[in-house]
Batch of 2 targets.
Target 1
Amino acid sequence: MEILMCIVAGLLFAAAVYLMLSKSLLRIIVGTGLLSHGTHLMLLTMGGLKTGAAPVLGENTASYTDPIPQALILTAIVISFGVTAVFLVIAYRAYQELGTDNMDQLKGTEADD
Amino acid sequence: MIDIVLKITLVLLAIAMLGLTYRLVKGPTTPDRVIALDAMGVNLVSIAAILSILLNTSNFLDIILLIGILAFIGTVAFAKFLEKGEIIEYDRDQ
Amino acid sequence: MINLPVLPILIPLIAAIVLLFVSKSILAQRVVSVIASASTVVSAMILMAKVKSDGIQTVDMGSWPAPFGITLVSDMLSILLVLTASIITLCVVLYSFRSIGNGRERFYYYPIVQFLLLGVNGSFTTGDIFNLFVFFEIMLMSSYVLIVIGGTKIQLRESIKYILVNVISSAIFVIAVGFLYSVTGSLNMAHISARISEISTEPIITVLAVLFLIIFGLKGAIFPLYFWLPGSYAAPPAPILALFGSLLTKVGIYAILRTYTLFFYHDQPFTHDLMSLLALLTIVAGVIGALAYRDVKQILIYNIVIAVGVLLFGIATMTEESIAGTVFYLIHDMIIKAALFLLGGMIIYIAGTSNLTKMGGLIRQYPALGWTFLLASFGLAGIPPLSGFSGKLLIVRSGFSEGEYVGAIVVLLSSLAVLYSVVNLFMEAFWKTPETPLPDVKKRTGSLFIPAASLVLLSVLYGVGTEAVYPYVMQAVQTLIHPEIYIDAVLKE
Amino acid sequence: MSLLHWAILAPFIMAACVPFVRKKATAIHTGWFVLILPLVLFVSFLQYLPVTMKNDSIMQTADWIPSLGINFTAYVDGLSLLFVLLITGIGALVVLYSIYYLSKTKESLQHFYVYLLMFMGAMLGVVLSDNVITLYMFWELTSISSFLLIAYWFDRDRSRYGALKSMLITVFGGLMMLGGFLVLSIMGNTFSIRELAAQAPELNNHPLFLLAMILILFGAFTKSAQFPFYIWLPDAMEAPTPVSAYLHSATMVKAGIYLVARFSPIFAFSGYWFWIVGTVGLFTMVWASFNAVKQTDLKGILAFSTVSQLGLIMSLLGAGSAALHFDSLDDNLYTAAVIAAVFHLINHATFKGSLFMVTGIIDHETGTRDIRRLGGLMSLMPITFTLSVIGAFSMAGLPPFNGFLSKEMFLLSMVQLAELDLFNLETWGLLFPVLAWIGSVFTFIYSMIIVFRVFGGKFQPEKLEKKPHEAPFGMLISPIVLASLVILFGLFPNLLSYSLIQPAAASIVPSIIPNGGQLDVHISFWHGFTTEFMMTIGVVIIGIILYKFLPKWIGMYDYFPGKVTLNNLYNASLYTAERGSHSLTKSYMTGFIRSYLVYIFAFFITILGFTIWVKGAFRFDSSNTASIGFYEVGLVIVLLIATATILIAKSRLTSIISLGAVGYSVSLFFIIFRAPDLALTQLVIETVSTALFLLCFYHLPKLSRHEEKRRFQIGNAVIAAGVGLIVALIGISAHSTKLFPSINEYYIKNTYTKAGGENMVNVILVDFRGFDTLFEIAVLSVAALGIYGLIKLRLEKGGEQNENE
Amino acid sequence: MKTNDVIFQTIAKVVFFMIIFFAVHLFFAGHYHPGGGFVGGLLTSGAIVLLMLAFDMKTIKKGFLIDFKWLISLGLLFSAGTAAGSLIFNVPFFTHAYDYFQLPLFGKTSLHTAMLFDLGVYLVVIGVTMTIIQTIGESE
């Protein structure tokens, strides 16, 4: 399962990179979203999967899954949410101000600096 | 015995998910997609519930409730979007 | 007071919260900002004295023993950098009063600067690799907001690139932490170091070393990961640029320095040679950029890249001497870059443009600015007895003694390129006869000049008083060269 | 800090006072105030003469950075004292001269004198420092003050050009020299020149010896304007003439000579030293004297002549190094070269200083320095004429001036070299006297040009801006003093022999002088019809002939390709550096974020791929992995389909919804992998994010997909696949190399007992690692504030105006 | 176009409280069961968003009376204050304290300073989400 998840995460990374290399700003941001999904799955996988019960005490079980990656992912999820939100709003404002969401037209040269 | 039944159910649910994903992707209209998404929510609830039984834990019950709520809000939001083209109005008296 | 190492992080946090409450009044914000920044500086000084006398200070957050909780570790390196960062922030805040504009002040400029400082100080202090990520994120988030605050066209355009690059590096950072956790089973840096030293030959560690180099290299702007930097840094106004130029890239360098002395020192023939190669390429790339532009901001920005290359070369050489040089140079570069960007901001403000071909003749009306700038330029180029010299001296010397002749000479000659670029800037802006005569009325620049000039003064003192700083730096170097000191201090074995 | 240190620092302190003096005492020319210092210094340094005449020395140390071995050590021996006297002596004369040269009303005197004093202090520092790092510091300071002085009239483009050029070249040399010092310090483990010199024999066998030597010679050659670095000196003539007289002929350019002399004890035994210093010097001498002839600017001639004379001294020092190969002083012919070098150094300072001042006078009184416009000034400016005759004839090597003596000694040394059987000289030795002679001929010619083109010939008042007349007396004092010295040293050379020359020469070649011994320095005016005398006669005859027929052959300079000069090389390389880097930068700094990402990812793939491959880091271990259920595979497929949908989606709504679907699938995985907290959070966050996406992109154009070239698409796909592959590979390897137990056992044990909770993840979040959470919410807060500011604050002006209020 | 949303609005009001209760439950359960300040906060904002859907931004703004940005500051103050409280007792930063109390109505309950910290998280999350949504909503 871990190997499979590594591959899945790799595929998510690949898809994310592909999207980030495209011209459309929206696709780029969607790409960052995929990237964070891939990251979280990979992080979870690194702690080992399904090695025990959910890390909540009180149920009769011999072992628990590793709680550390879960806690880390939780932090990472929230942070990437914040980043995505800011990114989205910047994109939205950029579209308002600059009138395009095509990255080619957002390249900027020294001439207009 | 019950385990096998549950696992079969899970497989079926997974197939249902695939079908719904197809609808989600294919569309062709936005309402199609929204309904697919809503149904996926129901599917998620089922999967979570069955997994709870399988894993013999009550930890996922909150999730089930949460999915229900989110699916509700989501569907409402989409419905409004489809009807008014806007999700949140600033001042509807204007 | 066992919580002393927390203070340089806590004070900005509390300050930011207070600033949020008083966001309506600009005057109150200014007062609180100054008081908070000054007290951060003071607390850092007290902490430094403590570290000097008692050695590494650690605090286990929440009383959870290392390696299970998060441990803050103030060794000499981190506290030196924290102190420098705090001083710079204080000066930038003072400079901002007149330059940043009421609009930005009303929209949380000051609290976000405090958050930035908090992130920077935290990154320098933390002893936990994931916590480092969190501090990176708060620093980055603040920088996203600062780079775009005001919402002008160029800011919006460049911030997109900036965020995108950093999102990628953050994502890689998280998975790299995951990999490291998978291999070593720990997150505490001292603990990881101890565990890695038991398995030093594992090839996966080398791979992770390169991975971390990429992550921190993206933040620290090394070749070939620096391309996002020049455009993005040119967007925000001068005080923000000063913060970015002096603090953000240096955090990346700090992280490389820390991880490569604590974790990844086992496969030096591979990792450090790679780094050394990249360092030289970074210098060359920076030099090419610095020569390419006739624009105040761009020239100074590419000088960041050059400095990063020099620092990286110091780390890559990895002897006691070169690490000492790196620490010397790191602190120098933070101060002088902040000063130069602030002075550059004044030049742009006075001339109304950052294009060198359109300005000139400023020396007649602003002699103090001109000479201060020239002095800072010489400092940047490492002309003795100014501050850049001792660091560069040690780096080059160890380069020669380790047989890295080409590298040492490239580092030496980079000074020439630096000198050329900034002196050329000086001549164009201050000496050249302007195409259009300057207006007779002088702009009032006193309140801008004082913070900038005090940074230059600090840099001069740092250079002349190298002897006074030396014991501090050497204490920092000892910890870096002998990771066991760090490990023992944290794990209390 | 001893008196010696204060002597070095005094000019700097004085410099700090100058602006106040200038402001307060406006009636008096600031120069009078400044003049005190060099005079006092000159007199006070004279007291060291008795010490150095005994070949003794004085060393005073003050700590600066002892931890790094960098100390402020002042050291006086014969060589330094000679230079100190030159610096202060000529300095005093130059300041005096400048008082009349620079108007106190029109010029910004405070700048001039601050720079000049800075230079004086720096120069004293260079010649008195024992520590190489301090020496380097003062060395760079001379470059900087020279930069400032050349750019004194900074409005002029030529001034700025010359200033930058001189600084670039000399600082370049300085940096190389620093490198050399550092290499030396690695070899000898000290920064002290004295201590290094003491280890000279060991250093000679060190593998880094040659590197150190070459690097240090870079410093000397750039500063002393040796070929091919001399090009900065002619352009430095944009400086006010007193500066040219002081820095660019008498003192600063001699710093390189000083350096070579100072390091002779360490390096001179090496054959490389002999060859490099000797040939570079000699070639410079010939080349520059040859070029001087075609100059039309009076100062240009003098500049090239300075280069040439510096080359002469340099070659003498090179030749003198041969002396070290003889054990005793007896029958050691080559010490003569060293003595000649020192002697000529003094002589050059006197005659060239006076010539520069004369040029300044001419410029000042006629308004031009162009020899094509000058002529026939002999009767109008008789004193100036006399002075220039003395200076120029001395330079040409004519008796009875001091130049004659040292020129003779130079020719003698070169002739003797031809007879030396060291360093393969058997084959090439003859070249030395021949080149020396040719150089002398050209020297003779340009000396004549200086005198007769300006003062002889026809007076052309129509070409002059001013009506020329004799200079005021004050301006003439300094050149008169110098010219008298020229005659004095010419007639009574032995005034200097044992007071200055012997001690200085002894410091250059200390190893061959027995304790308490002295070099034999007896300079005699007449020593028979020797080879060198015959050569001088030849120089004069051929010189006169060539000078007479100058118009006939001056045209041959045109045959030299005008474009392939070193100057053009310098200009072109700067230009190429700027333009080239500009276009290079433009080519990769495209502004396209895609390009940057491609660089980053390409680097990511190659370097990590390379590392994995080289290190064999890939591990595959499926022993402790969890089982895979059917439904899990189903979910994986769902996830991948949703991902693929995003890739091919045509409308933004589809891609946003698909992203949501991916998010929900991920949360489902969280459920399967027993992470209820994650699943909860992921579900809510996904919903909110999707909502945000929809909100933000409500206004975006319907078709947000921009058609891309197929080539790009394929490239993107390859890069994407590469990144994915690398990530997966490292992931698998990392998972397969779990080498240590995780620290998580601690949490499982202590969650209830110590932290009072049951949900481990939550307890970690708020307690064990609550510190993370505190800053994580801070991140969120910043994000919210940023978004608020982004939407509400709209500064309409462009980025540049932000600097304004 | 004015539409009649009476049913939707009425249901929304009811559901709003249901969600809020669930959110508060999640928040309190956090230490022992899945949940916590994050999810609680997010869900609370979800409830508010539902109201926004049913009514409009202006009404909600009037109804809530508080500036959500102020809520962020307050939340941060709670969290940072809880963590910094340990400074007073000179124990390492962030050291929590807890004990079990016999409370009327609730029975044996543990009171934990971590709860206070989590409350800060809860407030910040509400503040942040609502600020973002409100700001974007208003800009249209």
Note: Chain E has one domain: 6-138.
Target 2
Amino acid sequence: MLEIKEISAGYGATEVLHGISLTVEEGKITTLIGGNGAGKTTTLNCIMGVVKTLGGSITWKNRDISKLKTSGIVGMGISLIPEGRHIFPQMTVMENLEMGAYNRIDKKEIIREDLAWVLDLFPVLKSRYKQFAGTMSGGEQQMLAIGRSLMGNPELILMDEPSMGLAPIIVDEVFDIIHKIQNMGKTILLVEQNATLALSSAHYGYVIELGKIVLKGTGQELLNNPEVEKAYLGL
Amino acid sequence: MLQFILNGLPMGAIYALVALSYSFIYAASSVLNWAQGDMVMFGAYVGFTLYQVFNLGFTPALFISMAVVALVGVLIQYSILRPLRQRKAPPINVIIATLGVSIIIRNVALMIWGPDAQLLPSPVSTKPVATGILNITPQNILIVVVGLLLMIIFQYLLKQTKEGKALRAVAQDRYAAMIMGIDTERADRVAFAISAALGAAAGILIAPIFFITFNMGAGIGLKGFVAAVVGGLGSVPGSITGGFFIGIIEAVVGGQISSGYRDAITFVLLILVLWLRPSGLFLKKKGQKV
Amino acid sequence: MPLELNILTIKGISVRFGGLQVLNNIDIQVNRNTIHGIIGPNGAGKTTLFNVITGLIRSDSGTISLEGKELPYVKPYQLVSLGFARTFQNIRLFKEMSVLDNVMIGQHIHTPTPIFSIMINGKKSRHYEKVAKEKALEALKFMGIEEKAQETVSNLSYGQQKLVEFARALAAQPKIILLDEPAAGMHPTEKANLLNIVDRLREKGYTIILIEHDMKLVMNICDMISVLDHGKVITQGRPEEVRNNKDVISAYLGKGEYVNARNKRN
Amino acid sequence: MKKNKKIFLMIAVCVLILTLPLYINNLYYLHIINLAGIYTLVTIGLNLLSGYTGQTSMGQAGFFAVGTYVSALMMMNFNFPFLVAIIIGTVATAACGLIISIPAMKLSGPYLVLATVGFGEITRLVLLNWTPVTKGAAGLTGIPYPEIFGLKITSEGQFFYLILIFVILGTYIAVRLAKSKIGRTFSAIREDDLAAEAMGVPVNYYKIAAFVISAMFAGLAGGLFGAFSGVASPDNFTFDDSVAFLCMSVIGGNRTILGGIAGAFVLTIISELLRVFQGTRLIIYGFILIFTVIYMPNGLVGIMDNIKKNYRKNNKINE
Amino acid sequence: SSSQESLEKILRIGVVGPESGGSAQLGQGQRKAVELAVNEINKNKLAGEWKLEAVFQDDEGNPTKSSSATNKLIQESKVNVIIASINSSSTLADMVVTERAGIPQITPGSTGASITEQGNEWIFRTAANDSFQADALVKYAKEDLGITKVATFTASDDYGQSGAKLLKNAIEKYGLELVANPTYNNGDKDFKPQLITIRDNGAQAIFMWGLYTEAALISNQSQQLGLDVQLFGASGMAAQKLIELGGDAAQGLILTQTFLPDADIPTVKEFVQKYKEKYNEDPIPHGAQAYDTVYIIANAVLKADSSEPEALRDAIRNTQGLELVTGNPTFNEQGDDIGKRLLITKIDGNKFTLIKAFETK
Ligand SMILES: Nc1ncnc2c1ncn2[C@@H]1O[C@H](COP(=O)(O)OP(=O)(O)OP(=O)(O)O)[C@@H](O)[C@H]1O
Ligand SMILES: Nc1ncnc2c1ncn2[C@@H]1O[C@H](COP(=O)(O)OP(=O)(O)OP(=O)(O)O)[C@@H](O)[C@H]1O
Ligand SMILES: CC(C)C[C@H](N)C(=O)O
Ligand SMILES: [Mg+2]
Ligand SMILES: [Mg+2]
């Protein structure tokens, strides 16, 4: 279980998270939704230790990880699909996937099995394994980013807008995959702009606004909450 | 002509080695380290001291000196590059900082070892075993052999091993590398240590034939940088080719055309090469797309 | 189709990267004052098509004509004065500059550079600067972000940056605006805002070519849609035609389980 | 009220600068100030090139050299008056800028650095080896004192005003350029040249322009330098000198014109002040460089900006 | 300060030299020798009531820095006379300053011809006279060794280039054939291309003009290439280090110098002994010249009994009858010391041995 208590964080002199608390149940999908600039990405980066928290605690498996280095956090089975893909542009697709498994100490065969599994999930990656990742199309890169993160065999996956830039049919697939990996026992914290989609997939959800959690509840509760409906399900 | 080309080879091997140390650090940290030439000098002096004061032989001196200079590299990473990174300083600041390092190392060396040139005896002979067109001296063979050996090792490390790939990943996207669980700080440290050690190795290899002076880093550093860039910064085969390319061009131009304008002509050729291949001989602009 | 309706004709465009045929004999006609959607699976070649139109990539064959005149092979910046402006799939703003300056760069081709007047800070140069600034502010206002004019771009949120990029393209006063996934990563209310903006631009007489994966948005707003798959146009037509096309469903839209889940709600 | 204060302050600074030679009677200080003034012109140009347009140059000493030699030779060999000579020198330097910009516009990062280093070295080696014209390693001696409208400039004090005029002129031109559409376009190219191109900016022309402009600043500075020092040799224009210019530009802050001025003055003066440390002074200089780029990432001007911002913030709170 | 002077007569000597940078070894050698000389003179009251005080500034071998340093010495340290500098380019820049300020300047290191050709009455030179050296070397090569085909191989700096010119003149004068005249840049490491050219043109001798590091490398590399030539050099490279670095490749190298540590001359012996005592190393020739320069100044102030620049200048010009380490200095109209001793020496084992000595007057 990931438990975030009252964390605050910011960039330089400006604080953008003002005491965020949320809980991600093990084996469940939890979603975090909110407007642009609300602090979703910042929250995920705090969990990863990329952005240092100014206060509060983040516990995972009963350990405060808020002071750990990112490499340590990854080593504890947490992985992030970053916003904006962040693939390694001058490495091949295959090398990118290998980097996803950087922190694993598993046997080579097991990693190879996982690689086969990921390539099956995204056949386009299989057919392009030698292409430089930087020349892939936007959506292809997104798939690569997802695949790369799965290569780490994480227990907790933080997803920052995984559906961004994907064709509808692939969005379906990605959400299928999300459910699949949840069924494999993994824990997921999902950040999505597509709130309807996120909430209808999630067990529990949080709404963040201007660096504060303003609403929480089960996916269905939030989906039916008129405030949420007005602010986040629009269009 | 042929003899000029052949005579360019040992010089080329040295340039290649120094080029490699630039390339390595660039491939892993995207840093242009202007103090690289001074690592060569420092390595040579450490080797010299080990030999003079402690009477150590060539091989132990080589390895100890590589280790000592690697430590200096780590120190630079820790005390200079790390704070620069934390403050997200632009690349030009890193260049200026390493320029500062270069000035410091050079003048510290001047204080310690004085202004005179020093001689580090060769473990093998510097006299030719065969004269004529090919002037092969054992020392030159040593340079080329040890140099090539190091280059092959590093090509392997960088391209084939997981850690090597991790270093490249760090250079391409630090944030992404971080969330892969790569310790980017450590990667920087490793890159600085290794390329400093490479520089030291170059220093010890050339000291027996070129002597050691506190400002030898300037010339050799610049030539090594030229070789690295012309081959394609970050590419091991590029650095090697670049090194030999410069070595041979210098020999041919210096012997056949004009010794005074030798470096000028070399630079004109280089600029022409870059004009035709803006990322060096061995790199294509790959992985770029709008 | 009457000629005057047509503004852009893409004919037989093919592009190949190494062994990969990314665009294969593309024919698309875009009508004046319409919003033309381009959709298709990831990697279909949509962005590549944009790159060809804006001169960043040279096609292996085929022609593109604007208002009946074939476009010459020129530098990308020269195409801007012919009437094209674009946004990028990965935001490409001038990050360390202010929002206003970013948008004023969009004005580049419309602002003369009177060197002498600049030197003496003369009337002429001040006038041009003033006009450029006003126009830029106007574009920002149109996007609804004029209060961010003095902010450095890197301090803006993703959604706001997308709007700045849009404003910058608008400032070039093009005949055709090419938008590459403008809504990606945007919050629903901002999407609604975007839809509104695009609508108003159509009213103003602009022609817009839009790449987008948000079907709700595309179907709502586009007059015509071309669907690309594997570098080929598999179908074109009005939104309702495209939506129900079997090929489009199987290659792109899918069963729509999750997308439909959302559609149900509205 | 506030505005009055500002104007008063500006007038005070102007008067202070204008009367400097009157109360600095130590000619050594004046000499250093004059030298810094000449360097200012180089760094201003370099800031337009490296800071604004993002084209790092490590070969600025080459342009400086061309300006010095051409102007001096015009005066010495053809008896051209000073002003004409430095104009010819500046034009010649501009031509060099044009030539180097052709390969340079295709390059970036270390590749560009190398090309500019190459240019600097090529220039120096030509000066060294083209003996019939450049007098080789010995260089030019007896470069005549400048004479402007019958007034002969010989003393440090007179040079002060001559250099001041050019610095003011140069600063004015640079500021105008920087604040205009041209400066804005330069910055856009620095940030993302592809996006700039896609917005209609003829990127290559602007890169050429940046090179030519920065070359002209360096060339003008060179013309003054030759007349000021009376001698010039290839040793004045080494790679180390190019590096020193770059350091001035970065240490002062290369994204503003003021930064160039600050950098030239501060580094020139500091390296003289450090003379008291004798043997360790270069080591200290190295540490100063490192310290500044770490703790003042935007240069001295960046610090001033921060202070200003804080001051404003505090004032706001008080008000 | 005038009241101070009346109590104790102080003569301030400003010394500029490259104590760091590429020619640091020359600048530091100069500094050590000047310090030694000043101490002796003060201790032994060799300048009568005058006490010498030396102020040192580093110019890094950079002419601009050099002229700033000279300015500082004159304006701030109020020196009465300047010893500056080693690199000709620096000396030329300093001369502008000293002339403007009207302060006498003596250069113990710079050999560039143009220095004393400018009609500047404030400059003096105690450096070795290169034209005598070139002449003596070529003459010796022809008359004593019977060499006919020669090459010059010179540094591209001012020292090397003026050397090249003087050598060429001498070679023509004595009717030898110059078959190749390549140059190198200071800091170069590889000289084989030029050496191959020299070899292929059939030279019997190479006249080098430059500093010891490069000279040693040239010796080594010509041995590696199997060149069968006699090497010649001039005072710029005369240093114990040349023997050390050149190893057996430098054996037999013939060079001219003004100062030979082992020479059987009382002043030389004394100087070398004192220098070794103080610094535990051999002095360099430039050091000897700088040492003598201080003595010339001391003599001048003693004679003039004034620290007024003009009086000093005239006294220096009239220097006479001094028996110093590198000869008995006398200055000609241009300010060149024409009283230098000139020695042709040969590297033999671990030291230079004397072949011939000239008094150049
Ligand atoms: N690197 C940064 N430097 C300064 N401010 C930043 C930085 N990154 C984000 N911010 C600011 O922090 C706030 C929160 O940003 P964050 O990226 O966490 O929002 P978000 O909820 O992920 O938004 P979006 O949906 O647009 O991705 C925003 O106001 C943003 O401008
Ligand atoms: N330089 C290149 N080298 C090799 N393949 C490339 C290159 N550029 C693009 N491609 C390939 O061309 C195909 C089309 O890319 P494009 O970016 O046009 O797709 P897209 O339709 O915009 O996709 P998306 O919706 O995911 O952005 C992709 O499969 C991509 O991998
Ligand atoms: C012998 C050398 C030290 C001479 C000095 N390099 C000069 O320029 O004159
Ligand atoms: Mg975000
Ligand atoms: Mg795309």
Note: Chain C has eleven helices and ten strands.
